[in-house]
Amino acid sequence: MPKLNILVGTMYGGALDVAEQVKPLFEQAGYAVTIHEQPSVDDIVGGDADLVLFCVSTTGSGDFPGSFVPFVRNLREKSPTLTSLRYGLIALGDSSYGDTFCGAGRALDELLVDHGATRLGERLEVDAMETFMADDAAVPWVEEWIVAQQLEVA
Ligand SMILES: Cc1cc2nc3c(=O)[nH]c(=O)nc-3n(C[C@H](O)[C@H](O)[C@H](O)COP(=O)(O)O)c2cc1C
Fold this sequence. Notes:
The protein is α/β, with parallel strands linked by helices. The chain contains four helices and six strands; from the N terminus they run E-H-E-E-H-E-H-E-E-H. The radius of gyration is 14 Å and the shape is globular. Flavin mononucleotide binds at residues 10-15, 57-62, 65, 92-94, 97, 100-103, 128, 134.
């Protein structure tokens, strides 16, 4: 069974809720799913995951949530080649923060691509100004993503 790792960066739990709500969708699609609340670079390298989904909110002024900072620091230090990594990205933010809207998700996306990873489809940006519960936007998006990217395992 292929493996999907969901890497979470959250301050207030919204991104973790998203991870927990979409987990069964991937299980139905044939994946063994693990949610990582304290992610490490090992969760995305070395063939441990066939697919990775990031659920990351933004705090401060476009900053990564504290629980996600060690992952980003480690990624920058180790600078692994990620050419075999295929990933999806759900960014949580609030457009009232203006220029730093979804800043962490956007910075993460750039970092992953810089290391050779391939994003499948577009990044989802969930705006707290429009969507009170992020999973209301994330669940239908993941349902479509699985179909559009042909991720279902026969
Ligand atoms: C102190 C604070 C700073 C924030 N800074 C930003 C920001 O710079 N950009 C942004 O898009 N959202 C920002 N947000 C909004 C959060 O990203 C948004 O509410 C998100 O849904 C929180 O997700 P979480 O529950 O997973 O932490 C901020 C929220 C707080 C409380």
